[in-house]
Amino acid sequence: MTESSGHEDLAQTEDQQRRLAILQGIADHAVASLADGRQPWETWLEHAGKHGRYGFTNTLLIPAQRASATDVRSYDAWQKQGRQVRRGETGIRILSTRGKPRTVFDIEQTDGQAVQIGERTPAEGLQRLSQLAADLGFYIDRGQGWTYLGRPDRLIPVSPELDDTAAASLLAHQLAHALRPGGQIDTVSAHASSCHGARRVIADSVAYLVLAELGLKSASSSFLPPQQWAGTDDRIDASAAVRAVGDQIVRTSARIRRRLAEAAANSSRPTPASTAVITDRAALSRGEPSPARTAQRHVAASHLLAALADAHHFYRRNLPGSWGAQYLARRGFTPAMLERWEIGVAPSGRHSVLQHLRDRGHRDETLIEAGLAKPGKNGELFDLFRNRVVFPLRDRDGKIVGFIGRRRDDGPGPKYLNTPETELFHKGEILFGLYEAGRQLAGTARPLLVEGPLDAIAVNATLPDTYAAVAPCGTAITPAHIEAIAVHADLATSGLVIALDGDPAGQAGAIRAWRTLRDVAGPVDAAVLPEPQDPADLLSGRGGAGVRDSLLSVIPLADLLIDERLQRFGGALEFVESRITAAKAAAALIAELQPDQIARQVTRVAAGTGMDATDITALVASAISPDPSPDVSSPPLPVSGQRASELRSSRDRARPSSPDQHRRTP
After folding, report:
1. Of 385, 378, 449, nearest to 420 (Cα)?
2. What CA–CA distance (Å, rounded) separates 391 from 403?
3. pLDDT tens, 411-463?
4. Helix 197-213 vs helix 164-179: angle between axes, to the nearest 10 degrees?
5. How far is CA 646 from CA 403, 576, 607, 611, in A?
6. Checking DSSP bridges between strand 373-375 and strand 381-383, what pairing results, if any?
7. In 3-state terms, what secondary structure has residue 496?
8. Greatest Cα pair distance in the chain
9. 345 contacts 390 by C-beta, under 8 angstroms
């Protein structure tokens, strides 16, 4: 690199830092305006309804640069919509997900094809939200006259006197509670007694944004000003509270929008279940299908199960002498293990299984619905599993409901291929190995969550008295998975363990899994594996001893998450300010732990940040019950006078004297 190019790169870097500092300053000013009431919360919500998909900070940056903006997109995105940005138009600067400046343009700055905007009636919006609530396991009582006998925290009462818009707003409010981390719906008819402060602002604001997305106007016309839930005490960082609440509102509404879009896409696909109607109110109240629906499923299931069983016999018959048998033998899997787990191989031909099952009398429609065959672009059917080692997936009774196929190392397509969603198979409910490991779970073995079927087989073969290993079908751990394990094991006593790779991806997996595993009553531990190994290496000579030691040396999963919070929010914990920020972030996570785990984590965070354990305890208490009543002023942040003085001194030291210096914010 020449000296001149080096100067150019430095100049570009400095210019980007300067622009980034300016954008951050604009956002900080807008947050302060919300916190002190200069900008009404309703005004921000209007902008968030238009620009929320770009994140909280950009809902502030876009109107600050162009108040009239209604639909902003990148230059390329407008071209894909058949519109062209007019020459000479000034772009709107926003921040990308990586925190770098990028440019977008409002629709008013473009010419071209009209953008289609979907319109829905209030009844249609209510129907979509009702379907989403049902998909999440909630029951909506709108005065149907039947008795609900299920869990109280899964019932959402909606008064029949409400019109469709008000009912949709109430339902969106409850879904906002349900989809918040650690959230739960209001269990009383009147919000005020259980939903106030920041909690109410978040739910009402999310409802506003969701209804805006559906083309409806929220029934809620007023919102608590930030001074009533973020606080006005000088010792409280009200701007930080506004940021946290605003970010949570945008993220939660985005989750609901995404789920609504997925539900709309799924409902457009014809399925055998789409024509069934549940008419038995008593069965519905118990969360069960009606007798008529059960009969329909029984008839269809008998054909599907027969086709899957015949396919399984065919796969097993093709294993001996195949490349799959050689591959498994090289990895240490013995013939006895292959027999116990009933592993097979799918031939490489496009119609091998299809023709075999046709010869046995199975109809093409049955093979498609069972997930064994798939139509191509020309409409001709072909085998879904081809040239793969095939592992059977079983339901609670041991019946085969699907398969996982592992391709050759040099083969095309995804490494693992699952049976698609069918009447019998739902990947969010089935765990490979759970039926086979039932006896282990009934004994002393702890449930161990691993990544794939080879890992589960290897662990169950080498550590059968220690672990009963199970694997999800290429998806995240779900509450249904935990409920399935709980049928076989006393989780309050055994808890469970999750095996994680010792890399950033493994750490990210721990964070994702935590949202589901945190409600397990027993101990939840993690086994961090050495890179780049996995549990299947237990059967090979390449580091099996190291994997075994890692599986037997577990640590609480909460330790990993707390340490990650401290590092992410506090960095090197160099300043008092960064230590307090990290402690607050960790306290929010500690507040979600089981009660018997809180004291240990408080001690760890106090030791890691150098703060007093009493201060950490106060932060945890504040996180557990963060919402003051609207008529009660917010309590001050639990920081002593001396520590507040240190914080101000730290901010003074961290304040940049020029745009080139790194900027530290609370």
Report:
1. 385
2. 6
3. 888 889 999 988 899 888 999 999 999 889 888 899 999 988 999 999 999 99
4. 120
5. 60, 7, 19, 12
6. antiparallel
7. strand
8. 84
9. yes
**DSSP state letter for 86:** P
User: Residue 83's beta-bridge partner residues?
Assistant: 112
pLDDT at residue number 356:
94
Structure tokens of 564?
């990650």
> Strand runs (DSSP E) across 142-243, as ranges?
155-157
Q: What is the pLDDT of residue 354?
A: 93
CA dihedral (405, 411, 413, 415) positive or negative = positive
pLDDT over 90 for what percent of the chain? 29
CA 155, CA 162: separation in Å to the nearest integer?
17
First to last CA, the chain: 38
**Cα atoms in the Cβ-side hemisphere of radius 13 Å centred on 186:** 21
Q: In which band, very low, low, confident or very high, does the pLDDT at 280 lie, cut at 50, 70 and 90?
A: very low
Pairing between strand 155-157 and 139-141?
parallel
Task: Answer whether residue 541 shows pLDDT above 90.
Answer: no
**Helical residues (DSSP H) of 465-503, grouped into ranges:** 479-488, 491-494
Cα(475)–Cα(428) distance, integer angstroms: 7
CA distance 238 to 245: 11
Identify which of 217, 212, 213, 126 has the alpha carbon closest to the alpha carbon of residue 174. Answer: 126
Q: Is the pTM of this model over 0.70?
A: no
Residue 332: how many CB atoms within 10 A of its CB? 19
- For tokens 């799924």, name the residue: 266
Q: Round the average pLDDT of the chain to a whole number and report it.
A: 80
Contacts 24+ apart (CB under 8 A), 574-580: 575/650, 575/653, 575/654, 575/664, 576/643, 576/646, 576/647, 576/649, 576/650, 577/647, 577/650, 577/651, 577/654, 577/664, 577/666, 578/664, 579/609, 579/610, 579/611, 580/609, 580/611, 580/639, 580/643, 580/647
Distance in angstroms (rounded) separating the CA atoms of residues 132 and 530: 41
pLDDT by residue (tens digit) across 226-276? 887 776 555 567 888 888 888 888 888 888 888 888 777 665 544 333 333
Type and span of the H or E element at 585? helix 576-590
Give the separation between CA 403 and CA 393, rounded to whole angstroms: 5
Residue 529 parent element (H or E): strand 524-529
Label the pairing between strands 110-112 and 83-85: antiparallel
Separation CA 176–CA 179 (nearest Å)? 5
Tell me how long the chain is: 666
CA atoms within 13 A on the CB side of 327: 18
Residues 482, 483, 487: CA angle, nearest 5 degrees:
115
Dist CA 85 CA 190 (whole Å): 49
Which of 163, 159, 220, 161 lies closest to 195 in space, CA to CA? 220
- What b-and-e string marks burial along 1-38, b requiring 16 or more CB atoms within 10 Å of the CB? eeeeeeeeeeeeeeeebeebbebbebbbebbebbbbee
For 596-642, how does the pLDDT look when each residue is reduced to its tens digit (9 = 90+)? 788 899 999 999 999 998 888 888 887 775 544 333 333 344 444 44
Contact at 8 Å (CB) between 551 and 467? yes
